[in-house]
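Format notes (please read before filing issues)

Several people have asked whether sequences and C-alpha coordinates are stored in separate files. They are not. Every record keeps both together, in the order shown below: the sequence lines, then the C-alpha coordinate lines. Line labels are part of the format and must not be stripped during preprocessing.
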Amino acid sequence: MIVRDYNTAKDSERRIVSQGWESVRLLLKGDAMGFSFHITTIYQGAELRMHYKNHMESVYCISGEGSIEDCATGEVHAIRPGVMYALDKHDEHILRGEAEMVMACCFNPPVNGKEVHGPDGAYALEEEEAV
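Then the structure lines:
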Protein backbone atom coordinates (compact mmCIF):
# COMPACT_ATOMS: atom_id res chain seq x y z
CA MET A 1 0.00 0.00 0.00
CA ILE A 2 1.23 3.47 -0.87
CA VAL A 3 0.05 6.38 1.28
CA ARG A 4 1.27 9.92 0.64
CA ASP A 5 0.14 13.22 2.11
CA TYR A 6 -0.19 16.07 -0.40
CA ASN A 7 0.57 18.55 2.40
CA THR A 8 3.95 16.89 2.99
CA ALA A 9 4.71 16.23 -0.69
CA LYS A 10 4.16 19.87 -1.70
CA ASP A 11 7.19 20.82 0.44
CA SER A 12 9.45 18.16 -1.08
CA GLU A 13 11.25 17.32 -4.33
CA ARG A 14 7.89 16.01 -5.60
CA ARG A 15 6.81 19.64 -6.24
CA ILE A 16 7.85 20.84 -9.69
CA VAL A 17 7.43 24.51 -10.62
CA SER A 18 7.48 25.71 -14.21
CA GLN A 19 6.22 28.67 -16.23
CA GLY A 20 2.47 29.05 -15.65
CA TRP A 21 2.03 25.94 -13.48
CA GLU A 22 3.26 23.77 -10.67
CA SER A 23 2.66 20.12 -9.97
CA VAL A 24 2.93 17.84 -6.94
CA ARG A 25 3.62 14.34 -8.23
CA LEU A 26 2.09 11.90 -5.76
CA LEU A 27 2.58 8.70 -7.78
CA LEU A 28 5.50 8.21 -10.16
CA LYS A 29 6.92 5.56 -12.45
CA GLY A 30 8.99 4.14 -9.59
CA ASP A 31 5.78 3.31 -7.71
CA ALA A 32 5.01 0.67 -10.40
CA MET A 33 1.30 1.49 -10.68
CA GLY A 34 1.30 1.87 -14.48
CA PHE A 35 0.33 5.55 -14.29
CA SER A 36 1.39 8.68 -12.44
CA PHE A 37 -0.92 10.89 -10.40
CA HIS A 38 -0.38 14.61 -9.86
CA ILE A 39 -2.13 17.58 -8.29
CA THR A 40 -1.36 20.41 -10.68
CA THR A 41 -2.04 24.11 -10.24
CA ILE A 42 -2.47 26.23 -13.36
CA TYR A 43 -1.79 29.84 -12.48
CA GLN A 44 -4.30 32.57 -13.19
CA GLY A 45 -3.58 34.14 -16.58
CA ALA A 46 -1.52 31.17 -17.81
CA GLU A 47 -1.85 30.13 -21.45
CA LEU A 48 -0.10 26.81 -21.97
CA ARG A 49 0.24 25.13 -25.36
CA MET A 50 0.85 21.43 -24.76
CA HIS A 51 1.11 18.32 -26.87
CA TYR A 52 1.66 15.09 -24.96
CA LYS A 53 2.94 13.06 -27.91
CA ASN A 54 4.35 10.40 -25.57
CA HIS A 55 1.64 10.23 -22.92
CA MET A 56 -2.10 9.92 -22.46
CA GLU A 57 -3.55 12.23 -19.80
CA SER A 58 -6.82 12.58 -17.94
CA VAL A 59 -7.57 15.67 -15.85
CA TYR A 60 -10.27 16.51 -13.30
CA CYS A 61 -10.82 20.11 -12.20
CA ILE A 62 -11.03 20.45 -8.42
CA SER A 63 -11.22 24.25 -8.28
CA GLY A 64 -10.86 27.35 -10.43
CA GLU A 65 -11.96 28.25 -13.95
CA GLY A 66 -10.46 28.24 -17.39
CA SER A 67 -10.71 26.61 -20.77
CA ILE A 68 -9.10 24.04 -23.01
CA GLU A 69 -8.82 24.53 -26.76
CA ASP A 70 -8.41 21.61 -29.17
CA CYS A 71 -5.74 22.86 -31.59
CA ALA A 72 -6.93 20.49 -34.34
CA THR A 73 -10.52 21.75 -34.38
CA GLY A 74 -10.40 25.13 -32.62
CA GLU A 75 -13.17 23.91 -30.30
CA VAL A 76 -13.00 25.48 -26.82
CA HIS A 77 -14.41 23.82 -23.70
CA ALA A 78 -15.00 25.50 -20.35
CA ILE A 79 -13.10 24.06 -17.39
CA ARG A 80 -14.63 24.44 -13.92
CA PRO A 81 -14.95 22.26 -10.82
CA GLY A 82 -16.38 18.88 -11.71
CA VAL A 83 -15.23 18.90 -15.36
CA MET A 84 -12.94 16.11 -16.61
CA TYR A 85 -11.13 15.91 -19.92
CA ALA A 86 -9.01 13.13 -21.41
CA LEU A 87 -6.38 13.58 -24.10
CA ASP A 88 -7.07 10.20 -25.68
CA LYS A 89 -5.52 10.99 -29.06
CA HIS A 90 -2.39 12.81 -27.88
CA ASP A 91 -4.41 15.96 -28.56
CA GLU A 92 -2.45 19.18 -28.97
CA HIS A 93 -4.21 21.74 -26.81
CA ILE A 94 -4.05 25.15 -25.17
CA LEU A 95 -5.01 25.33 -21.51
CA ARG A 96 -5.98 28.77 -20.20
CA GLY A 97 -6.36 29.67 -16.54
CA GLU A 98 -8.94 32.40 -16.07
CA ALA A 99 -8.71 31.87 -12.31
CA GLU A 100 -6.14 29.64 -10.64
CA MET A 101 -7.12 26.03 -11.34
CA VAL A 102 -6.28 23.01 -9.20
CA MET A 103 -6.39 19.82 -11.24
CA ALA A 104 -5.98 16.09 -10.49
CA CYS A 105 -4.03 14.52 -13.38
CA CYS A 106 -3.13 10.97 -14.40
CA PHE A 107 -0.46 10.14 -17.00
CA ASN A 108 0.14 6.91 -18.87
CA PRO A 109 2.92 5.96 -19.19
CA PRO A 110 3.85 7.35 -15.79
CA VAL A 111 6.34 10.18 -15.46
CA ASN A 112 9.53 9.92 -13.41
CA GLY A 113 8.93 13.12 -11.48
CA LYS A 114 11.13 15.93 -12.81
CA GLU A 115 9.55 16.38 -16.26
CA VAL A 116 8.62 19.80 -17.59
CA HIS A 117 7.29 20.63 -21.06
CA GLY A 118 9.83 20.74 -23.86
CA PRO A 119 9.72 23.26 -26.72
CA ASP A 120 7.18 21.02 -28.48
CA GLY A 121 4.85 21.06 -25.45
CA ALA A 122 5.53 17.40 -24.58
CA TYR A 123 7.17 15.48 -21.78
CA ALA A 124 10.05 13.41 -23.15
CA LEU A 125 10.24 9.68 -22.58
CA GLU A 126 13.28 8.14 -20.94
CA GLU A 127 15.86 6.99 -23.46
CA GLU A 128 15.19 3.30 -22.81
CA GLU A 129 11.42 3.85 -23.26
CA ALA A 130 11.87 5.82 -26.48
CA VAL A 131 13.64 2.92 -28.24
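For reference, the curators noted about this record: The radius of gyration is 14 Å. Strands lie at 15-18, 21-27, 36-42, 47-50, 56-70, 76-79, 84-87, 93-108.
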